[in-house]
Automatic annotation (TrEMBL):
Family: Belongs to the IlvD/Edd family.
Transmembrane feature ranges: none
Residue ranges the record marks as coiled coil: none
Protein's UniProt name: Dihydroxy-acid dehydratase
Any one Pfam family match given in the protein's UniProt record, by short name: ILV_EDD_C
Family annotation (PANTHER family): D-XYLONATE DEHYDRATASE, D-XYLONATE DEHYDRATASE YAGF-RELATED
Organism encoding this protein: Thalassospira profundimaris
Cellular component terms per the entry's GO annotation: cytosol
GO molecular function: hydro-lyase activity
Start and end residues of each Dihydroxy-acid/6-phosphogluconate dehydratase N-terminal domain: 84-173, 261-443
Signal peptide: none
Dihydroxy-acid/6-phosphogluconate dehydratase C-terminal domain mapped to chain residues: 464-658
Annotated keywords: Lyase
Gene3D superfamilies: IlvD/EDD C-terminal domain-like
Length: 721
């Protein structure tokens, strides 16, 4: 059989002073064994590819020879098979191994743990979720440096995992630049395939219709409307979580019993996922991370949006991209991060992506040695207005799976189309920035005259004409904290307008479980006006300040529906040092799918939110309660003012507010609040015993700086500009 085409005529030798495999006989004796076994598995498990390539498994002496010559040592990094995004990793990894050897390199394979945020949702697992990111970054860095690899082919999965791998590789790149005796680190990323959403089974749909009708008949038409609204969504784990909250409300109202509740939830879970798994198709943190990797120029188009195991040609394109940039430091991972930082900020906003990226972006950049915080993010965000060009919808069949299909059909070119659209709209994209293909963005999009096939019309996920002019994530400042994040793209135009210069009454919770129980309570609406510290004078002042003129203490539902009576549900003590910074996903889903509360109220936390969060949800508050942040000093009946034009959130002195005076201040200045905080601090410290000691996020920077270990924080001194 003839040799496959497109193979290098001359083998690439990495240009560096150090070669641990030449200079360390133990490594030279140990590691070749793993290479031979990897390539033997590649042929045995995919004999068709092996046969078509005429591939012969090398002998140990062949591997030794390449290691001594300092051929490219490439680590294939996969995820754990207990995460649904990584079910198809192995065949791709084995194809990559074959191509690496064909191109003259030496392939290795290791895996990293991946915590599924869906599995960890609303239980103690969420306290381990963000911690897993830091541990994975350390594991990648340790393995990469410990075995002296040159490059990585990364099969990147969900949530925090892609950022963690980027950080681990970037840290090695930063250290090697400091030492000066090794080549930099190159990497190419192949995001995991996309999960196809499910459909509500007909029988389950009829049952839900009946529950909604029974809710209407019982006088709870708001619940009936909420159930029907959620039935419009493509079945994903996010909609499952919303149904869980809605059905709990129905059970507590006596509309269904526990057995019916369980039956519906089990039927929904069964119908949600196909057996191939993948990254969930909503535009949450998983797909925001996919967007991030592509925006930083780390992903070849052939691997950007997969729905199945990629063909060998696509895998080869990723491997070949690496071989095209070897011995070219300008394409090392640290340089790609620096050059594309501002590009990604703008793309993140234009695509309305996850607020969690405000944690992961400074995290990655600081591991790479750059002194970056969310202040830099906001600086870039405010330089040039960025419109929303992503019409992503789980109710109108425009999820990421559909986007992948549109790209496969040639209707768009994924990230290249996004760069083209934004540049054409006048957004200040740096098209000279390099990518892993060895080309700038300008070179990649030079021939892209029509970035989106206009024949798709409203079915297109990427839009050449903006969906709206305001999108993204904003950074708020205020009188009682340094900064926090609000996902503007998750708020409707109505909410953005209605909540601009709006005041709220605080209802405080010390953990998300108490908040969830309150949201599920059938009498919450009537109980809100009975909150401690709330009286008719305060409600009257709030309603009038928010544009209302009717105060009826016997009709709180009416005041809430009109949006004049508003509450801020504050969940404190959820920060990284306190409790691992879990997602407040369930409270946010319960708020979003409670029509009356969504129209009138907001959530505030020093924790974080799911990437798919919708509604008025403010998180990442710095400093967190556990470190003395004023969010831990708030109490029921406090008054907060939100100004989305000026991007401020202020605490107003309650008694002064009742008299028509708005004095922004800090509750920490009130002496009698200190005992309240001290009591809460003790309970926060006691609650930490829920978490295994090794997984408490300790000795870290705050959320504005990516929650990196302090040793990493200290070394982040380079400018990205």
């Amino acid at each position: 059989m003839s040799s496959p085409a497109n193979l290098p005529n001359t083998p690439i030798i990495i240009d560096e002073k150090a070669n641990p495999y030449r200079d360390c006989i133990q490594g030279l004796a140990n590691q070749p064994i793993t290479v031979v076994r990897l390539l033997r598995d590649a042929v045995n498990e995919n004999p068709v590819v092996g046969r078509d390539r005429g591939f012969v498994v090398p002998e140990i002496k062949d591997v030794v020879g390449r290691l001594v010559e300092n051929r490219p040592r490439i680590a294939i990094i996969g995820g754990a098979p207990d995460h649904p995004a990584h079910l198809l990793d192995r065949p791709q990894a084995l194809m990559a191994a074959i191509r690496i050897w064909e191109m003259g390199g030496v392939p290795f394979l290791f895996h990293v743990p991946v915590i599924c945020d869906g599995t960890a949702q609303n239980n103690i697992g969420q306290s381990y979720s963000l911690a897993s990111r830091n541990h994975t970054a350390a594991a990648v860095n340790i393995t990469f440096e410990g075995h002296s690899y040159h490059a990585a082919y990364v099969i990147a999965g969900c949530d925090k995992s892609p950022a963690a791998v980027v950080a681990g590789l970037a840290a090695a790149d930063h250290a090697r630049a400091w030492r000066g005796d090794q080549a930099p680190v190159w990497a190419v990323f192949a995001p995991s395939h996309v999960l196809k959403g499910g459909e509500i089974p007909d029988g389950t749909r009829r049952l839900l219709d009946r529950i909604a009708a029974d809710a209407d008949a019982a006088g709870h038409d708001d619940l009936g409307a909420d159930i029907r609204e959620n039935m419009r969504y493509i079945l994903q784990c996010t909609s499952d979580e919303a149904f869980a909250g809605l059905l709990e409300r129905a059970r507590l109202l006596g509309i269904i019993d526990a057995a019916q509740e369980r039956k519906v939830l089990d039927e929904l879970a069964t119908a949600t996922c196909d057996s191939k798994g993948g990254i969930c198709a909503f535009n949450g943190t998983g797909n925001s991370s996919r967007t991030m990797l592509a925006a930083f120029g780390l992903t070849p188009p052939e691997l950007e949006l997969l729905t199945d195991v990629p063909p060998f040609e696509a895998v080869a394109a990723g491997v070949d991209a690496l071989f095209g940039v070897f011995n070219k430091p300008e394409y090392a991972i640290g340089n790609l991060l620096k050059a594309n930082f501002a590009n990604f900020v703008r793309i993140h906003n234009a695509t309305g992506s996850s607020s969690n990226m405000l944690l992961h972006l400074p995290f990655m950049m600081r591991y790479a040695g750059f002194d970056i915080s969310i202040d830099d993010y906001q600086d870039v965000r405010t330089q040039t207005p960025v419109p929303e060009i992503f019409a992503h919808s789980l109710t109108e069949n425009r999820d990421t799976f559909v986007l992948a299909q549109q790209m496969a059909e040639g209707k768009n070119r994924g990230m290249e189309s996004i760069y083209r659209v934004l540049a054409d709209l006048g957004v200040a994209m740096d098209l000279d920035a390099p990518t892993v293909l060895g080309k700038s963005w300008a070179e990649r999009i030079a021939d892209l005259e029509n970035p989106v096939d206009l024949s798709l019309g409203d079915a297109s996920v990427i839009r050449a004409t903006p969906v709206r002019q305001r999108s993204g994530v904003d950074v708020l400042t205020g009188s009682f904290f340094e900064n926090c994040a609000v996902k503007t793209s998750g708020m409707s135009d109505h909410l953005l307008s209605h909540f601009d210069d709006h005041v709220f009454i605080v209802r405080y919770y010390e953990n998300e479980h108490v908040c969830n129980a309150d949201f599920a309570s059938p009498d919450l609406i009537s109980r809100l006006i009975e909150t401690d510290g709330v009286d008719e004078d305060l409600i009257s002042a709030i309603v009038q300040r928010n544009g209302g003129n009717r105060v009826d203490m016997d009709a709180p539902k009416d005041m809430l529906e009109q949006g004049h009576l508003s509450f801020a549900f504050v969940i404190g003590g959820q920060g990284p040092e306190a409790y691992g910074m879990p997602e407040m996903f369930s409270p946010s889903q319960n708020l979003r799918h409670h029509r009356i509360l969504e129209a009138s109220s907001m959530l505030i936390t020093d924790g974080r939110y799911s990437g798919v969060t919708k509604g008025a949800c403010i998180g990442h508050m710095v400093p967190e309660a556990f470190t003395g942040g004023a969010v831990g000093y708030l109490k029921d009946g406090d008054v907060l003012r939100l100004d989305l034009t000026r991007l401020t959130l202020d605490w107003l002195e309650p008694e002064a507010f009742k008299k028509g005076q708005e004095r922004a201040s800090d509750p920490r200045e009130i002496a009698d609040r200190k005992p309240l905080f001290d009591e809460r601090f003790k309970r926060m410290a006691d609650r930490q015993c829920d978490i295994a000691a090794s997984n408490v996020l300790d000795a870290i920077g705050n959320a504005a700086r990516g929650i990196v270990p302090r040793a990493v924080d200290r070394r982040a001194t380079k400018s990205w500009r």
